[in-house]
Amino acid sequence: MNDILPPESARWEWLEAKVRDLMARYAYRNIRTPIVEPTPLFVRGLGEVTDIVEKEMYSFEDRLNGEQLTLRPEATAGVVRAVAEHSMLYDGGKRLYYMGPMFRHERPQRGRYRQFHQIGAEALGFPGAEVDAELILLASALWRDLGLQNVRLELNSLGQPDERKAHRAALIAYLEQHVDALDEEARRRLHSNPLRILDTKNPAMQSVVEAAPRLIDFLGPQSLAHLDAVKAILDANGVAWTVNPRLVRGMDYYNLTVFEFVTDQLGSQGTICGGGRYDYLIEQIGGKAAPAVGWALGVERVLELLKEQNSAPPSLAPDVYAIVPSTAVLPRAVATVEQLRQHGVRVQMHAAPSLEGMGSMKSQFKKADASGAMHALVFGDDELSRGMVTVKALRDGAGEQTERPLDSVAQWSATLQSTR
Question: Polar residues: which segments have biased composition (predicted)?
């Protein structure tokens, strides 16, 4: 688990602001659920034999009442619980999004920490393929807004339970014939969760996995029609896709459409966003049956990919650094700075480094330059006596300076913001 410090935290704020703006354009509303939930919620929701439940959850017993609790390893189960608990679907479907920390006990590596952060979108109460497609288009729009390149979309369908049951039987029969080629983990899952074997990263098993029965070959007309409808909407919107018949995702709750957005620039952590339809999860955790679909992205991975592609967010440096030669001018300086801030100008004001005074002008200009500000405001005694302040350029046209009247802050504040 790690701290996120300035200036890195500014990149997080920039990404979160982009997400909030995008979600508003798609009419998704924010939901915030607890970080701690009852452990059975995740066992029922994610599947008892998933990696997350078996190996990765941070679970503990409440010392006051003995309840089994878990730090959330993902957010969908909590969102579904909240929707069911508060009867949110009584008046129709809901489009929701969330941001926040999740917790899994994994081996830390690039783009993966034990406390990690996800942003997710969930559409609950909508059965149609158009909402699957809408969520994929929402994610694609985010990559566009962020300036991300070379992110590809992989699609698959997990069909419905009876189709998966027929495929499961065929898959087990096939794997039993190749049991000697399976690693220990695959053998353990052979009868409990054979579909997850198809997601193995073990190179020695790839030939066996590639030749295994494909779930898509067991899908009936309705499941295939649902997938085709998603494809048609994506095609109409110019979103490229490929079908990956081995794409199964890591949670047991999915059915029909599943998808991932993948990059080759982050090594083994190449999946930056994934999701799918989960029509049976609400009923599974005790709510009234309702269809649903959603996705989650890894914030750390997206930011890492932005770094790889040298796609830097706009500077969040102050517009102005206020130079204050003496404590005598502080009241006028602070009053002017406050007016600028009220007009939207980002101002960092110099503060005395010690009780001896405000520090030399040279040291203040050094701090002004290091702040990244475009301009310095110099509150000199002579200028203030004439009701003026000096504006000095620190970047473009460095060294150029003009005087501005203190009684017309509103008129020249826009100039200070225009060079962001």
Answer: 410-420
